[in-house]
Amino acid sequence: MAKLSTTTRAALRENFPHLARDVKSFPVREGEESWTLHEVEELAAFLLEDKERLERELAVADQELSDLLRNSGDGAGDDQADYGSSALEREQELTLVNNMRDLLAQTSHAVDRIRKGTYATCEITGLPIGKARLQAFPRATLSVEAKAREERR
Predict the structure, then answer these.
(1) Separation between Cα atoms, residue 108 and residue 51, nearest integer Å
(2) DSSP characters over 47-114
(3) How many Cα atoms are found within 13 Å in the side-chain-facing hemisphere of 123?
(4) Is the pTM of this model over 0.85?
(5) Could you read off the pLDDT of 76-133 as tens digits, one per residue?
(6) CB 4 within 8 A of CB 41
(7) Any idea what the CATH number is for the domain that residue 36 is in?
(8) Residue 16 lies in a domain
(9) Which end of the chain is more exposed for a tag (fewer CB within 10 A), N or C?
(10) Distance of CA 134 to CAs 9, 48, 59, Å?
């Protein structure tokens, strides 16, 4: 486990003032050890850093997409291949921006769940999500079983 910097610890205290209390109520699956403050601090720090990174990258990507859309009519030729290539580039950029927005929304939701003390609880079943699942994918909001049921539908 990595040691958290003083700056990171200050950010954690600011964003999650009740974390030391809340971590005790984060559920675990049968056979798992209880969450430790350090484990949740590491996940929370990762999510906060990732949120900041995604916000910066999204601002840049939004600007690039705006520029691309604004300049879509500009070009030397009226060749259909040029139009097709430009349309494909715009579509790829739009897909990238939308995926980034989705990831940012998931990250923000995970941060909010930690802040509210509801982290590690499945949003559908109310059962524990599982430490291993959250350590692999800290944005998870559903247990493995609930996610499998959702994907079958």
Answers:
(1) 7
(2) HHHHHHHHHHHHHHHHHHHHHHHHTTT--S---HHHHHHHHHHHHHHHHHHHHHHHHHHHHHHHHHHH
(3) 10
(4) no
(5) 555 666 666 667 777 888 888 899 999 999 999 999 999 999 999 999 999 999 999 9
(6) yes
(7) 1.20.120.910
(8) no
(9) C
(10) 21, 15, 28
